[in-house]
Amino acid sequence: MPINKKNIGIEAIAFDIPQHYIQMTDLAEARGIDPMKYVLGLGQSEMAVSSPCEDSVVLAIEAAKQAIDNFGIDASSIGLVVVGTETPIDHSKPVASYVHEFLELSQECRVVEMKHACYGAMAGVSMATDWILSGRNKQKKALVIATDIAYYGVNTPGEPTQGAGAVAMVISEQPRLVEFEIEFQGYYAKQVMDFWRPLYKKEAIADGHYSIDCYLNALGDSYQMYKNQYFEKNDKIDNNFNKIFSASLYHVPFVKMAQKAHIMLLGQDWGMQPARDSEEFQTAKNDYQLRVAPYLKLNARIGNIYTGSLFLSLYNFLADASESMTGKSISLFGYGSGCSAEFISAKILKFDKRLLDYKDRLKKRRKLDIVSYENLQELWKNTGNKDGVFNDEWELDRQFIYLGSEDHKRQYQNKFKA
Ligand code: CAA
Fold it and tell me: Ligand 1 centroid to 165 CA: how many Å?
């Protein structure tokens, strides 16, 4: 059955990150590892570090507030709030209900938290798209937020792939940035133990190398499903199908993963996986440099923000892509361990680039030495383990701050209202 034609896409986007970071070369030195392993081997140059006052609610609210304010969205037009996160603050109460309260959204609103590891926000985007497509939105808009603090623990193999941040997007029938190509989509699911976090642990557990294989399997199959749908409508098939996308954006647990993903997809088109020292591998790597790497600057300097990392790359793309890309297609691949994945595409619209900026935000961060980082990680690990309020000792330049809990209720300082 043909899908109803509606213009659905992203009307607004913004992100928020912690105000501290570390340099990956410092971390490597402290761990007695060749710094080039982190910088070239993983592709990471810096890593965001949350203070206890910057929880997943704070990051989500700051990102959402900016998306609404910067793009002049009427808050009363929001009829659905979905927060994708694997950093919940409660077994029961969702991050989304705090977002709803502090942004003073209408009570005629669906509000929910979505969890499937790093797939949560992509699932939120699809839910919002389907909600609008069905017409049950009644012209209202959806606010989809990805917010996470990636934490594997000090001195673990996952440590250099930590990070934290949130991306907020308004999905509507008046897209200003990209319009989803809703007739094609690929998805995939399979139960695997590649990455998980039991309820009693703050640290994630990863079977690292296996998780990379799971990611690539999920990518290959969801891409194939997308291609099959595309070919049903377009009879022209060639072995450079991927080139229909002017840019290919991926879930980015670490930058090198996007390179592995892209080379594998091109190999899938060619019907062979290129060996590392082959000419084909170099061709695929050159293509990665052209269509993927330019949009990973934020990921390289922030680290893994789990469910938001694909959309951080999208933000980077929107801020940096040349105007000549208007009207062209990009692909977006979301992966959540466990696992679920989705491959979609979107058309780039013409918009005012001044709405997007990340350079100043990165400049304003404060660098930590490794001992201070380890102390902060220890504090963050213990935050929320018991009732009690604390002060902002980190002099955060924020409107909204988490200050612990009193009588088992989370306490936030909200200067937006002051
Ligand atoms: N100079 C340059 N490169 C070097 C180097 C050096 N001195 N030393 C090593 N390298 C390279 C290696 O060759 C390797 O590159 P290739 O993969 O291209 O071969 C790279 O650096 C990493 O080296 P290792 O594989 O030896 O690193 P590791 O064993 O310490 O583990 C990791 C890396 C598996 C990513 C680990 O950090 C980890 O477990 N991270 C968490 C799990 C994760 O991010 N999984 C991703 C897929 S799952 C997902 O996407 C969901 C999610 O968000 C978590």
Answer: 21
Q: Are 338 and 217 in contact (CB under 8 A)?
A: no
Active site residues: 86, 118, 251
Q: Of all protein residues, whose CA lies closest to atom 24 belonging to ligand 1?
A: 41
* pLDDT tens digits for range 309-342: 999 999 999 999 999 999 999 999 999 999 999 9
Q: Among 167, 156, 141, which residue's Cα sits nearest to residue 310?
A: 167
Within its chain, how far is the Cα of 214 from the centroid? 18
Are the CB atoms for 123 and 332 separated by under 8 Å? no
Query: 150 near 299, Cβ under 8 Å?
Result: no
Tell me if 246 sits within 8 A of 329, measured CB to CB. Answer: yes
Nearest protein CA to atom 46 of ligand 1, as residue: 212
Other beta carbons within 10 angstroms of residue 167's beta carbon come to 32
In ligand 1, which atom is closest to the CA atom of 306? 53
Q: What's the 335 CA to ligand 1 centre distance in angstroms?
A: 17
Report the CATH architecture of 9-414. 3-Layer(aba) Sandwich (3.40)
- Tell me, what DSSP letter sits at residue 316? H
Instruction: Please name the residue whose Cα sits nearest to atom 39 of ligand 1.
Output: 208
**pLDDT one-digit tens code per residue, 187-206:** 999 999 999 999 999 999 99
pTM: 0.97
pLDDT of residue 2 exceeding 80, the answer is no
Q: Tell me if residue 375 falls in helix, strand or coil.
A: helix
List, as one string, the DSSP characters of 91-150: SSS-HHHHHHHHTT--SS-EEEEE-BTBTHHHHHHHHHHHHHHHTTTTT-EEEEEEEEEE
- The structural domains of the chain, with segments of one domain joined by +, span 9-414
Cα 308 to chain center, whole Å? 1
Identity of the residue numbered 382: N
Q: Nearest CA to 17 among 43, 56, 44?
A: 56
Taking the centre of ligand 1 as the mean of its atom positions, its distance from the CA of residue 327, in whole angstroms, is: 36
> What tokens does 17 get?
């990150």
Neighbours of 34 (CB within 10 A): 11
Tell me: pLDDT of 113 over 80. yes
How would you classify residue 385: left for phi > 0, otherwise alpha for psi between -120 and 50, otherwise beta? alpha
pLDDT in tens, 246-297: 999 999 999 999 999 999 999 999 999 999 999 999 999 999 999 999 999 9
Tokens coding 19: 């105000």
